[in-house]
Amino acid sequence: MTRQLVVVLLTVFACVKESNAAGISGVFNPCYFWPDSQYAGNGICFRMNDSPEPLKFMDAQTACVSDGGGSLAEIRTEYQRDTAGQIAASSTLGPVWLGAISSDGQTNLAWNSDGKTVEVPQSWRDDERGIIQESNYGQICLAMGEDSLLSASTCDRAQNFICQKYAGNPCDVFYPGAEYLANSCFLPVAKNLTYEEAHMYCGEIGAELAGPSDEEVYSVWLKLGSWLLNKTPFWYGGDVYAGTLYAIQILGSGDAHGFSKELKSSLAQALCEKALTTEECDGVFVDRRCFKLHVSDVNWEYAKADCDGPRSYLAEPKTDLRQEVLVRYVADTGGDAYGLMLFLVIPKLSIVSSSSHNVCLIVQGTGHGLCRTGVEAQCDAALESTNEASR
């Protein structure tokens, strides 16, 4: 006879909604699950390796895969190039590995994931392209220096490296076509508009003409606008610079000083901003879902009933990404202090090999993963206790 394991204790539990939900204030950072990582656009997170020593290229790739299924970073956009450059600048041991290698007998570097030739305009050292074409050093691999320039290097050289993981772009759900930055979605509008027309256009789609005043966000926003609008001028929406006849145009160079005062009747493109708030997710948003943690003295059946509703249900961490997010979410919400357990639904958990049904199980909520490393003994003990009670 197959059994379905249901363990009942006082606990915390997590609900999830498919897109919107009303925990801690709304967290939309795609890289929240991966400490010390940086968002690089297109749903990708980059992080410098935490290996205690530099590694050869193949060993670096293995280390990234071992870190929760990552890979060596691949730069396909200016956003990713500049993000990788910022990370590489922090290396104290010289250049860092990226995820491209030359195939046997070939002189071109190709990305590991799809074999496409590495093409990153204006990012190469002038003398390094020649090394790649001549390929005098056997198999070569791609590196980036602290100056953000790419170079070719023998793959047997030990270097630091940057890993990447895919996390998704929350703006794909709330504001399709936009890119994420600092809990906001920024949508490029590739149309020639007057200042007032740009304001109206953004308002009609439920957004505002972008114009951040925070210095740190502003510097990244300048580059974001340059990347998204192909270096064409666009309007700055901040009221601090607006006058009766004139407004500020960002020249599109990505430079902090690249702006000019222009007549509002002149033409430029626009960057619309939609802030993500607790109205979209009063919890942590990941993988097109909003997770909201509840702290309450209830059993599993009550937790499930409390979560059930339109597009809402007790959390099902079916992917490594969702599991990693829940682990950090519980810890950040005080899970260590509570010393409690987390109610979840884990479909077809392999620990109950005799059951083909979904398994309702309590797992450790902080620090060790969810019924993975460090928790198997606890799950075994819970299962054995239930089996003893049923005999």
Automatic annotation (TrEMBL):
Domain C-type lectin: 41-164
Gene3D superfamilies xrefs: Mannose-Binding Protein A, subunit A (3.10.100.10)
Signal sequence segment: 1-21
CDD domains found in the cross-reference section: CLECT
Keywords for the protein's UniProt record, in alphabetical order: Disulfide bond, Lectin, Membrane, Signal, Transmembrane, Transmembrane helix
GO terms of molecular function: carbohydrate binding
Family matches, as SUPFAM superfamilies: C-type lectin-like
Entry keyword Disulfide bond: yes
Superkingdom: Eukaryota
UniProt membrane topology term: Single-pass membrane protein
A family per Pfam: Lectin_C
InterPro entries hit by this protein: C-type_lectin-like, C-type_lectin-like/link_sf, Chordopox_A33R, CLec_Tetranectin-domain, CTDL_fold
Chief localisation class: virion
Localization in the cell: Virion membrane
The protein's name in its UniProt record: Mucin-2
Organism: Plakobranchus ocellatus
